[in-house]
Backbone:
């Protein structure tokens, strides 16, 4: 993957700097990470890198098509590799877990939106909020009383 990044940067006239490499490595490792989480990861290896460098690098890498962002609720955007961008996000409102699904899982919805409303869905930015299986299991059942 690193060679692909290097080639993509150089092909567009950009140098492969240690900061860019560290940001790409952090995005790969963390998956769906905020700029602050990426900063914390990079800062472990390069304490001289500041958060503004992270933001500028993410912006450049997104312009170059190497990373992309999505919004998984309120707060900062979350970044992941652009090569892995086409997926549906399931976000648990209780624990915050993000689960990725293949785009075809949403195909019935995508088809219905197109046929009924003429709406073309950007599945790469589709996020569904709800409650994950684990959190549903730990919820009190109907009629349960709290102590």
Residues:
């Amino acid at each position: 993957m690193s060679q692909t990044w290097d080639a993509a940067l150089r092909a567009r006239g950009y140098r492969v700097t240690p900061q860019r490499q560290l940001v790409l490595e952090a995005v790969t490792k963390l998956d769906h990470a905020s700029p602050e989480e990426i900063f914390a990861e990079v800062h472990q290896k390069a304490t001289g890198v500041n958060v503004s460098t992270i933001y500028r690098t993410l912006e450049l890498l997104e312009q170059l098509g190497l990373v992309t962002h999505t919004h998984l609720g309120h707060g900062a955007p979350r970044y992941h590799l652009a090569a892995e961008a086409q997926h549906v996000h399931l976000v648990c409102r209780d624990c915050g877990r993000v689960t990725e699904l293949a785009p075809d899982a949403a195909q019935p919805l995508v088809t219905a939106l197109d046929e009924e409303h003429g709406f073309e869905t950007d599945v790469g930015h589709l996020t569904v909020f709800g409650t994950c299986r684990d959190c549903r299991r730990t919820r009190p059942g109907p009629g349960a009383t709290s102590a």
User: Anything to note?
Assistant: Helices lie at 2-11, 18-30, 35-45, 51-63, 107-117, 133-138. The first strand starts at residue 67 and ends at 70. The CA atoms of residues 89 and 100 lie 5 Å apart. The first helix runs from residue 2 to 11.
